[in-house]
Design brief:
single chain; mainly alpha
């Protein structure tokens, strides 16, 4: 069960990253919002079930990761729901893309390097 949730979490993250990178967030409105919510739920599940021992700096890193992930989810909701002009939506998408990449890098660091 844990492996299924882990790999679905990774697939959802890649799908959201691809939607942000290609600028299809607004075109795939329903799928983008559902992906963002499912990503948050599977991330919370992985967070609760896979934690065995906290390496040094883990709490600070996870706090930053959660805040950046909330930024990505907020930007996805803003991009899909608002009627902002193209320049503002592009700026929001760029910010969400940067935050998304940072979330992935922080997760990779703490799951592979900090053990």
């Amino acid at each position: 069960m844990n492996e299924i949730v882990l790999y679905s979490h990774l697939a959802l993250g890649l799908a959201l990253l691809a939607a942000l990178a290609t600028g299809k967030i607004r075109a795939w409105r329903g799928a983008s919002m559902a992906t963002a919510l499912l990503l948050a739920l599977t991330g919370a599940f992985n967070f609760m079930t896979r934690m065995s021992g906290a390496p040094k700096g883990w709490h600070a890193g996870m706090g930053i990761k959660v805040l950046l992930a909330l930024h990505v989810i907020g930007m996805v909701f803003l991009i899909t729901r608002s009627g902002a002009d193209a320049v503002k939506a592009a700026r929001w998408r760029k910010g969400a893309l940067v935050s998304c990449v940072l979330v992935v890098l922080i997760g990779l660091y703490f799951s592979n390097m900090a053990r």
